[in-house]
């Protein structure tokens, strides 16, 4: 299993290896390795059913694991009593008693852990829900419930924050607020493990990304490294659309070429190849009206990696991290 | 434990868990007390089709205050079962069980403390049942010119105290059945439905077909505790037997719960 970070268990907020969960014949999580350095924001991505939430549930002690060992915040993975008081979590969406107000829902939790009631007011202010604190949660929008869920996860001033789809249902302003909040928390030393299907969010928030596919790590490293593992495309457009075939013939000298429906020709290559194509096309009498490099996005990297088996997908990581 | 009980009471103060059950209990207990007192005669009627009848001499005796209270308590016991089951099982339906377990990973401690919290809620239910029956009894008896002075003598108050304790034990026992089934079924409707079906239908059928097992069935044994003992099962053995049942069933349920996957 590829692991790119230098493993320093004493410093890592989460350092687990071989994490496994089996449901009948299906291995929902299969030998997962996860390292989260303190004060970093790590994104957990993967297709539906990849095992992200199952992995988080195991870390939070909600489900029994069938394999694996490691530490969370310096405590053994089995020692839930040792580390869970220092963990804040929002998993599988915000869960609250609908007929209670937001404040009372938080009081259920503050009293459970022996915090003063004023702590509920503090976190409600932090997520800007103070003016609706006395309203029943059943009157809240999904976005407001999400903010309340984040507030609940912050109650204990956690050292580790585990958030499952934290921006789900939020409007663009809310998404930005969550993004800023997570960055601020990370700057204050809080370690954040965030699972999301919004890859743009992961790209904007996270230092590192862990891609889970079929229960295994498909990639673990920097966001830049994940994207960098994918090859850029040179895209060229002839000034005269009738010369598209001629341009494709010229481009074929540089690699396998694709003629696109939008009147462009593309092939794998970087800036230097683009310059060579420009010269070659000019020499062949084909003038270009457009020439550029199409950099892969995290989304493209995600699809490229998830279409491979986890073992195959592991190779770009090493390139990206080198 | 105290922290968990305080947390539980935030939820138990909701109208559906507090005021509605208390209002139903008050109306039912007071109503039945009034109806029975108005129906009391000097001699037992020969009309076998009529409602159960008490003699005026029963009501003027030291234990007279508790007649209506015990009748009202029989409904309150079902209410206790429903509330215990709902309090436990609704956490699965709303997903709030995750919030609780992440903050208190000692699952057995969490559930036992919540059960203690629910038993403190049962104290309120008992208090309301007793007060409703007593107030309605005094007013109605007075309107009919019955002498209730014996209710407030030493023996009368001791009997009232004993009945109050039996009622509370009964509420906790029936509630515990609801709570156990709430953990197992993870659904308040299923837990309540199965509990009531067992108590009202299955136990009656079993008791009729196999009369010898009647005093071993949990519902009947709980009923004996709530009644302070019956002709065939004294209070002490009944309490011992039902405590044994609860320790076994509750222990097995908690053992399962402590290892079960929380996926809701």
TrEMBL record, chain A:
What are the GO MF terms of this UniProt record? ATP binding; ATP hydrolysis activity
What keywords are assigned to this protein?
ATP-binding, Nucleotide-binding, Transport
Is Oxidoreductase tagged as a keyword? no
* InterPro entries associated with the record: AAA+_ATPase, ABC_transporter-like_ATP-bd, ABC_transporter-like_CS, P-loop_NTPase
Q: Does the keyword Nucleotide-binding apply?
A: yes
Annotated ABC transporter domain ranges read 14-239
Q: Which family does it belong to?
A: Belongs to the ABC transporter superfamily.
The cross-references to PANTHER family, in alphabetical order and at most eight, read:
ABC TRANSPORTER, ATP-BINDING PROTEIN
Protein name, UniProt field: Unannotated protein
Q: What is the lineage of its organism?
A: unclassified sequences, metagenomes, ecological metagenomes
Automatic annotation (TrEMBL), chain B:
**UniProt xrefs under PANTHER family:** INTEGRAL MEMBRANE PROTEIN-RELATED, MEMBRANE PROTEIN
**The UniProt record lists the keyword Transmembrane helix:** yes
User: What protein name does the entry list?
Assistant: Unannotated protein
Q: Which organism is it from?
A: freshwater metagenome
The answer to whether UniProt assigns keyword Transmembrane helix to this entry is yes
Q: Name one Pfam family in it.
A: ABC2_membrane_4
**TM segments?**
16-38, 75-94, 115-139, 159-184, 196-213, 233-257
Q: Which UniProt keywords apply?
A: Membrane, Transmembrane, Transmembrane helix
């Amino acid at each position: 299993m590829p692991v790119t970070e230098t493993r320093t268990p004493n410093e890592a907020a989460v350092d687990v290896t071989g994490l496994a969960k089996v449901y009948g014949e299906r291995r929902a999580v299969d030998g997962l390795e996860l390292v989260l350095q303190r004060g970093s924001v790590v994104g957990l991505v993967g297709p539906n059913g990849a095992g992200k939430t199952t992995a988080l549930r195991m870390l939070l002690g909600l489900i029994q694991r069938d394999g694996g060992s490691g530490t969370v915040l310096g405590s053994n993975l089995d020692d839930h009593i040792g580390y869970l008081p220092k963990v804040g979590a929002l998993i599988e969406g915000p869960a609250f008693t609908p007929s209670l107000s937001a404040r009372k829902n938080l009081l259920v939790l503050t009293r459970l852990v022996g915090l003063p009631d004023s702590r509920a007011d503090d976190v409600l202010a932090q997520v800007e829900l103070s003016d609706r604190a006395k309203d029943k949660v059943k009157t809240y929008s999904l976005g407001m419930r999400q903010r309340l869920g984040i507030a609940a996860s912050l109650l204990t001033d956690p050292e580790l924050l585990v958030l499952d789809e934290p921006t789900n249902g939020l409007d663009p302003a809310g998404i930005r607020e969550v993004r800023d909040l997570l960055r601020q928390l990370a700057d204050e030393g809080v370690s954040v493990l965030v699972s999301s299907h919004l890859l743009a969010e992961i790209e904007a928030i996270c230092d590192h990304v862990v891609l889970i596919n079929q229960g295994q790590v498909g990639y673990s490293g920097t966001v830049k490294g994940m994207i960098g593992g994918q090859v850029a495309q040179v895209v060229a457009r002839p000034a005269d659309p009738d010369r598209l075939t001629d341009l494709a013939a010229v481009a074929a000298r540089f690699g396998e070429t694709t003629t696109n429906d939008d009147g462009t020709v593309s092939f794998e290559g970087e800036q230097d190849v683009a310059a060579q194509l420009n010269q070659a096309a000019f020499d062949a009498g084909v003038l270009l009206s457009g020439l550029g490099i199409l950099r892969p996005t995290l989304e493209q990297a995600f699809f490229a990696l998830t279409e491979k088996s986890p073992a195959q997908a592991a190779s770009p990581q090493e390139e990206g991290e080198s | 434990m105290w922290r968990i009980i305080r947390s539980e009471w935030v939820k138990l103060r909701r109208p559906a868990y507090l005021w509605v059950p208390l209002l139903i209990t008050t109306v039912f207990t007071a109503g039945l007390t009034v109806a029975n007192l108005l129906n009391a005669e000097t001699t037992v009627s020969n009309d076998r089709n009529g409602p159960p009848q008490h003699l005026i001499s029963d009501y003027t005796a030291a234990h007279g205050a508790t007649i209506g209270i015990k009748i009202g308590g029989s409904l309150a016991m079902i209410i206790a079962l429903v509330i215990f089951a709902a309090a436990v099982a609704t956490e699965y339906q709303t997903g709030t069980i995750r919030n609780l377990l992440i903050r208190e990973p000692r699952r057995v401690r969490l559930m036992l403390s919540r059960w203690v919290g629910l038993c403190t809620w049962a104290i309120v239910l008992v208090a309301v049942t007793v007060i409703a029956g007593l107030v309605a009894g005094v007013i109605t008896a007075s309107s009919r010119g019955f002498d209730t002075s014996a209710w407030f003598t030493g023996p009368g108050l001791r009997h009232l105290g004993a009945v109050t304790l039996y009622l509370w034990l009964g509420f906790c026992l029936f509630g515990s059945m609801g709570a156990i089934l709430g953990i197992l079924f993870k659904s308040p409707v299923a837990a309540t439905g199965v509990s009531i079906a067992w108590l009202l239908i299955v136990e009656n059928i079993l008791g009729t077909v196999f009369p010898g097992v009647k005093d071993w069935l949990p519902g009947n044994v709980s009923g004996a505790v709530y009644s302070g003992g019956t002709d065939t099962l004294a209070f002490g053995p009944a309490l011992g037997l039902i405590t044994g049942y609860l320790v076994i069933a509750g222990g097995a349920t908690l053992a399962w719960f402590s290892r079960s996957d929380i996926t809701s």
